[in-house]
Design a protein that fits this description.
By secondary structure, the chain is mostly helical. Strands 10-9-13-12-11 form a 5-stranded antiparallel β-sheet, with helices on one face. A 3-stranded antiparallel β-sheet has the order 1-2-3. Helix 8 packs across helix 9 and helix 16 (442-454) runs antiparallel to helix 18. The longest helix is centred in the middle third of the chain and has 20 residues, at 368-387. It is elongated. It binds iron/sulfur cluster (SF4). Iron/sulfur cluster (SF4) is lined by residues 657, 662, 664, 667, 675, 677, 679-681, 684, 686-687.
Length: 790
């Protein structure tokens, strides 16, 4: 007959006990100060949710709990855990075998013998003397329950010198399925384990096996540690137990940490600062520099971007600064004093640092960009250190010389950014879209489709809420998204009905999977891992992984030139560039595209696309219908007859001059700085102008006329000087003639053509600084094939 369990008093509700969470955890008893501090971080609702028994110090989570639950044996009245495939616990299996039953006849299996129900306290016997045990002593016979009496006998046989009081304190309780016994653990350790478990459930959303928790509690009891950080991991080094121990310990430590505690360490856990990863100062050997670097990092981190439950690159940026300081420290170590004396450092040491970076770049150990960033970041930190007053007398870097600094001209020029070319060609996009069905899980396909359709950043796609689709006043679909990079939340993007259907289909999938979660708590693309309630989204990393797997599985992608396209260019972010390019090619004005891309500056948008070849040609064709030489003779009257090579030549074989272009080869080669005729363009045969320069020509004519009147009226000039300063009448009449020719050319057009030319001129002029095609200057020589054609 089994031993009866002790009575279980009702756990008081958190609100019924004054004095914070400590009494809630310990049923009204006030634990020591450290335990109370940890208990104060516990949420009473969480304790209730996980079935914490404050009187008995036992955890009894419901079997149906999404993270702490367990699979129950399928035999009707059995409450044992059954982890095997047929969901029958070992006890019931033995009973089945004994009775000769099979799975089909489970219903006739007799009920299990249950332990005696709890008794009122007045009828209870004395407790078993093993601290962790919840059972009663065998009345009148022994000090222990039956199980522990037997265990003690066995322990004495194994160790005749067994110290019984120690055994009582550390002996394990009788294991009960679904129950984790924390008796015999220090109050502080109990609070810390509960705290770690709370954070693990809330932040990680990861499942925890009750069997792992039982083993963890048993190890803690054996070691009798006073605080969790003193625990030495025991038992298996693989499986789920070490992960549980590690995460509970880390969460408990982080929850109790303060930045004041962290900043004195040499390796910081950035989670305490809201970032991810660690920050390691051990690479900086000089005491003053390491302390100053810590002060800088502590000053800098609060200004960095943070996102709940998400990694950001902020920690990485700070780590990079510290890495650059470690490189500086390495150079200072070569000094006789090891660089330990700030006052002894001078410009020479900084030059040594610069030489070292140049050497590392020459050896290929660092990139040009890394060299530039190293200079820039060391400069930023040293400047900030001075601004923080750390170089004042008595401070960390007292008397650090003013010449121990980096200046802007010490920073190597940053490599010029390549022209935007990260978009994917149309024919490649077509091939990709034809094979979307091959993307693995449906939600990953949705992510890729949305990236293609909307051009949002991977991070923005992954973090879409379930309720991300809405309609504008006219009923057109609008995507709601958060631009985390620029901290602009609740942005709106017009989308097509096709994209809206992709979203609604995914919404249906999510709802079917998480029917109980309120829609406001759901995400559109829930991850498959650690996500019991559908509130955790896939990460950009996992989306990129699925996308890469899909791309690799595709057959070779062929360009229109019949060559294989390099699949390494097909990354999720390339769809954003493709989106920008697609809209630019369709004639979307840059200011509208800026809005669509959710950029603050048009210049940022302009970096995302090239002026589309088709659009450029269209604009060039339009303006070339009204192109003139210096005499006002119209050239290329039929733009449609323009040869392809001529289009290219116009783009690469001319150089911008005021109100037109110059085709003089030596001047083009010199980038427009080597006119052999002192820029007398309106009298030069190499000069061309067109309708897009009409405003410039008009302004120039006004300027010439104004100058002519001013110089004529001037009394302080000699005649020869006046004659030389006066604009020539030939130039004035030539410019006036050009203007008249262009205007009359416009008058010859009908209203529709005039409108088209006007649009083309607007486009050409708006993007002229971007070298949109008219009038474009390139120093790069034509390739051999083009030169032969021209
Ligand atoms: S004067 Fe002639 S060669 Fe000189 S820049 Fe003008 S167009 Fe070119």
């Amino acid at each position: 007959m089994s031993t009866p369990l002790k009575a279980v008093p009702a756990t008081p509700s958190p609100s019924s006990i004054p004095g914070g969470a400590g009494p809630v955890v310990f049923a009204g008893r006030l634990p020591d100060l450290q335990a109370r501090a940890a208990a104060a971080l516990l949420d009473g609702a969480f304790l209730t949710e996980i079935g914490w028994d404050a009187h008995q110090h036992v955890l009894r989570p419901a079997a149906a709990h999404p993270l702490l639950g367990r699979p129950l044996c399928r035999v009707g009245d059995c409450e044992a855990t059954a982890v095997n495939v047929d969901k029958i616990c070992p006890g019931c299996r033995r009973r089945m075998e004994k009775d000769g039953l099979d799975i089909a006849s489970l219903t006739v299996l007799p009920p299990r013998l249950r332990p005696r129900p709890f008794l009122p306290a007045a009828l209870e016997g004395e407790d078993c003397r093993v601290v962790a045990c919840l059972r009663e002593r065998r009345r009148g016979i022994a000090e222990y329950c039956e199980v522990h009496q037997a265990r003690l006998r066995a322990a004495r046989r194994a160790d005749p010198a067994l110290e019984e009081s120690g055994w009582r304190a550390t002996e394990s309780p009788v294991s009960v399925a679904g129950e984790v016994n924390f008796r015999g653990l220090a109050d502080r350790v109990v609070c810390e384990v509960l705290l770690g478990l709370q954070q693990r459930c809330r932040l990680d959303g990861v499942k925890t096996k009750d069997s792992d928790l039982r083993v963890f509690a048993e190890h803690l009891r054996r070691q009798q540690v006073r605080r969790l950080q003193d625990y030495v991991p025991a038992g298996p080094t693989v499986g789920t137990l070490p992960a549980l121990v590690g995460s509970v310990g880390t969460h408990a430590r982080r929850a109790q940490s303060s930045t004041e505690d962290e900043v004195v360490k040499d390796v910081w856990d950035l989670a305490v600062f809201g970032q991810n990863g660690t920050l390691d100062f051990t690479g900086i050997s000089q005491d003053w520099l390491r302390r100053a670097a810590k002060r800088w990092a502590a000053d800098d981190l609060p200004r960095r971007r943070v996102r709940p439950n998400r990694r950001t690159s902020s920690g990485l940026a700070v780590r990079h600064h510290i890495g650059c300081l470690a490189r500086l420290s390495q150079v200072l170590r070569l000094r006789e004093d090891g660089g330990e004396v700030p006052a002894a450092l001078s410009r020479t040491d900084m030059e040594t640092f610069l030489h070292r970076l140049a050497y590392l770049e020459s050896c290929g150990q660092i990139s040009k960009d890394a060299r530039t960033r190293s200079c820039r970041e060391v400069r930023a930190v040293l400047t900030r250190i001075r601004a923080m007053g750390l170089t004042r007398p008595g401070q960390i870097a007292a008397r650090l010389g003013e010449d121990f600094a980096l200046h802007t001209d010490d920073i190597p020029a940053k490599p010029e950014r390549a022209e935007a070319d990260r978009d994917l060609p149309g024919e490649i996009m077509r091939q990709l879209c034809e094979q979307l069905d091959r993307i693995g899980p449906a939600h990953m396909r949705t992510a890729v489709e949305l990236a293609i359709d909307t051009g949002r950043r991977p991070e923005e796609i992954c973090s879409l809420r379930y309720e991300c689709l809405t309609r504008d006043g006219e009923g057109h679909p609008v995507l709601l998204f958060d631009n985390h990079k620029a901290q602009r939340l609740g942005r709106r993007l017009p989308i097509s009905e096709t994209t809206a259907t992709v979203i609604t289909t995914q919404q249906q999938r999510v709802r079917a999977r998480y029917p109980l979660t309120p829609p406001g708590d759901l995400v559109l693309l829930p991850t498959d891992r650690r996500n019991p309630d559908g509130s955790r989204a896939i990460t950009p990393f996992s989306a990129a992984f699925s996308h890469r797997t899909w791309i690799k599985s595709l057959p070779p992608l062929i360009t229109r030139d019949r060559v294989e396209f390099d699949k390494r260019h097909i990354v999720l972010y390339a769809y954003r560039h493709t989106y920008a390019q697609r809209h630019a090619d369709a004639g979307v004005p840059v200011d509208v595209l800026c809005e669509l891309m959710d950029h603050r500056k048009i210049t940022t948008t302009q970096g995302y696309y090239r002026i589309g070849e088709g659009r450029r040609r269209g604009a060039v064709d339009k303006v070339t219908t009204l192109q003139f030489d210096r005499h006002g003779n119209r050239i290329w009257r039929q733009a449609a007859e323009l040869m392809d090579s001529e289009h290219v030549r116009r783009a690469v074989g001319s150089v911008a001059v005021p109100f037109g272009t110059c085709g003089e080869p030596s001047n083009v080669k010199a980038g427009g700085h080597s006119c052999p005729f002192r820029f007398r363009c309106t009298g030069c045969d190499h000069f061309r102008t067109d309708v897009s320069y009409l405003p410039d020509l008009t302004a120039y004519l006004d300027d010439l006329l104004r100058n002519r009147e001013r110089i004529r009226a001037a009394v302080e000039l000699d005649d020869w000087a006046r004659a030389e300063a006066l604009p020539s009448e030939e130039e004035i009449s030539r410019v006036r003639h050009l203007i008249n020719r262009i205007r009359s050319g416009m008058d010859d057009l009908d209203a529709g053509e005039r409108e088209q030319v006007h649009d083309a001129v607007t486009l050409v002029r708006r993007h002229r600084t971007l070298a949109l095609g008219m009038p474009r200057m390139r120093v790069a020589p034509l390739d051999a094939r083009q030169e032969k054609q021209s």
